[in-house]
């Protein structure tokens, strides 16, 4: 069911939802980009539609709401430990099809990979999705190649047009609007300028190929590709001791990446992947091969953020296409 409402009425609707929901959406942050005099588009709490940036791809995905960059798991002292309080409100996320698929991948890792992560589960159960339509493909996107350009897993969707907003509601708990009812379905991008052909089979020989040596000379190990990725889920743990009392502190979960130095270090000085080419191989094989063997679909959702963020212009889409060419030549 979809409704045609004025922008003013839609903002009133958001105000009503705020009683039960924290509402997050892409917001343009002027002057907050990675470089001087550049802007950034990140997820922030919003109260009205005018705050939402609908025409630019976010620099980070909605992952940073579900899986905070730094998350306190518990506080401790000499005698006991306590978990932080969790707010009672549910969460409404405005996001695109590829990011909805991205959260599905996080669900696989944190909830369906042999055990359930209780911290992630608490947040995930609160989340509802508002689909943002993509009117055209953004630069470096290849969602159509990954099959993530279309989704029906949303609770509502919006389509602002002039002074009006079309609002489709799939979930009764989102309420209803006593306005004009229309027959409407979301529009999706069906083709991207960037196209990716993924090898059907990556042999062990290819995994050990000199192909990866190029990335040892190019990649600087900054990890930006992983941090902007909606499906990367790796983290490290930190115990923070307070200056006031060194017997008290907190344990934090902090984003990390298989692409940064030290991630695979072990006691005794051993490290699994010291070269950047080895790390690139691991990341690409996981996104396009290993994950699919376990869950039946690729981990990468084709949002193209890693290509957008890489300071060395390394493209995972180009890498996948090169691998496919090598496989086809054999």
Would you mind describing this structure in some detail?
29% of the residues lie in helices and 21% in strands. The protein is α+β, with helices and mostly antiparallel strands and 330 residues long. It has 2 domains: 2-66 and 86-182, no CATH class; 204-231 and 256-329, no CATH class. The strands form 2 sheets. Strands 3-2-6-7-8-9-1-10 form an 8-stranded mixed beta sheet. 31% of the residues are buried. The mean pLDDT is 92.
Short recap of the structure:
By secondary structure, the protein is an alpha+beta fold. The chain has helices at residues 7-17, 63-66, 97-111, 118-124, 143-146, 204-207, 213-218, 224-228, 276-295, 305-309, 316-329; strands at 2-6, 21-29, 40-45, 70-76, 81-82, 90-95, 127-132, 156-161, 164-169, 180-182, 235-241, 249-255. The strands form two sheets. The protein has an eight-stranded mixed β-sheet with strand order 3-2-6-7-8-9-1-10.
> Could you tell me how far the N terminus lies from the C terminus, measured between alpha carbons in angstroms?
52 Å
Overall outline: globular
Average predicted confidence as pLDDT: 92
Order of helices and strands: EHEEHEEEHHEHEEEHHHEEHHH
Report strand order across the widest sheet: 3-2-6-7-8-9-1-10
Output the structural class.
alpha+beta
Amount of helix = 25-40%
Beta-strand percent range? 15-25%
What is the number of helices?
11
Overview features:
330 residues; alpha+beta; 2 domains; eight-stranded mixed sheet; 11 helices; 12 strands; 21% strand; Sulphite_reductase_A; Helical_ferredxn
Annotate the secondary structure layout.
Blueprint: E1 2-6, H1 7-17, E2 21-29, E3 40-45, H2 63-66, E4 70-76, E5 81-82, E6 90-95, H3 97-111, H4 118-124, E7 127-132, H5 143-146, E8 156-161, E9 164-169, E10 180-182, H6 204-207, H7 213-218, H8 224-228, E11 235-241, E12 249-255, H9 276-295, H10 305-309, H11 316-329
